[in-house]
Amino acid sequence: MSIDATESPDSPLFPSNGRASMATHIIYLALGSNLGDRRGNLAAALQQLRDIMDICTVSSIYETEPVGFADQPRFLNIVCSGRTSLPAQDFLAQAKAIETSLGRQVTFRNGPRPIDIDILFYDDMNTTQSELTIPHPRMAERAFVLVPLVEIAPDKIDPRSGQTAEELLNSVSQDGVTKIAPNLNIAFERDIQGGKPTVNVSLGRAGIVGIRKALLIGNGEHQQWFDATFDLYADLNPTQAGVHMSRFSDALEEVIEDVATSSWPQIEILAEYMAKTIVEKQKVSRAEVFIRTALPLQKWTPVSGRRTQEVYGLLAQAVATEAGSRHLIGVEVEGMVACPCAQDMVHSFARVRLQEEGFSQDIIERVLDVTPLATHNQRGLATLLIGTDQNVEAKDLIALVESAMSSENYALLKRPDELYIVNKAHANPRFVEDVAREILRAVVEKYSDLPDDTFVWVQQRNDETIHKYDVEAEGWGTLGELRSEILYNTGVEHHTSKETWLGITK
Questions:
Q1: pLDDT band at 234, cuts 50/70/90?
Q2: pTM for this model (two decimals)
Q3: Catalytic amino acids?
């Protein structure tokens, strides 16, 4: 689906992260913890460090004896390397702030601490500036630093001594340094989701819903940021207890980052690609993806000519199996609907009252013909989905749906606009069924170039004002089926359902 950008891709609402492209300085850090949750402290430090650097490599975890003050718990130590755009002094200040945020307090030298972050190397810098000394002044005598450093960078040259990290390590004792884990991950005893369920029955959908992501949709100059919500599902066979929920998030992040710019030309293509990725990662036979976002469009009020931003729903749905995939694209549009039944009753009542007042039949007919007649109004919400590989314009779908209702509505209306809208709606009264059929007819007429196997699905829901219930109507089918009925008045025994067209039914 094509969109027209109303906001720059550099919108401050969704700032691009230029850290990677600006990170030019190579940096090595040593991290240690011996208070509280030592693994958790190291993980939290790495998490916050990612805001100021691109972490490339992290060593294994080593448990080490304390140095300088022996009466304290053993440490967990790691070394990491990466790139940063910050000057060394600024990076040190940020690292100290991270230490403070994780609970480190000022104590005596070499005392216990929840986290310690030391800069070992910063490019080939060899300097002492205030609190900053690079390379780290005591690095060459500390096996708990050199052992993890040699693991990830044995040939790294110390600019002060000219020796490699491995040569420095060979000059110190490695006693008291023990490798305990290859990384911060905990090895779990069982794959609970991969086990057998207590009830042996398959499920059509299992997944996660309501994930929000900022997406850049469009091509070239026509790009726009969207705050999108994802619902991700996989089917579940009767022998598997559950899906791995984290893999949905992994798949989403992987797909979004698959393009360097994080930009997708069409939201429906993203949905279809997501569904394929879930099938692969979850190792399931079928996956479904729903994406919902808001599409703001600039419009003008009908009489006062005031500019107003109207917000519409932009939708995509996709299903993927091992055999193939399909997608739907569509819009959600609000509008105004005037009830023809109530208006017809008002028409009859007005005729009787005019007769009782002595007006001639000719005058009555003229008055009823030119005077808008009262009825109760409804706010309508229409959803239109189209299944096609060809591009359709979001604006065209929105205009098509709005024209099917009694009138469009607006976020901003001055009094002359209100009069226009009320008169327009009451001149075009429609049942909920009328609106659904009008949308189907308009799609058939608008998209005469689309093939017969194109799928169309419409739902119209009206919020009632005088009844304690709402009303709804749906219609669907392929364009071939709809053309037979609408254009050629040929009966169709069965309309293809959305589930069948998407291949959801087995």
A1: confident
A2: 0.74
A3: 104, 113, 116, 118
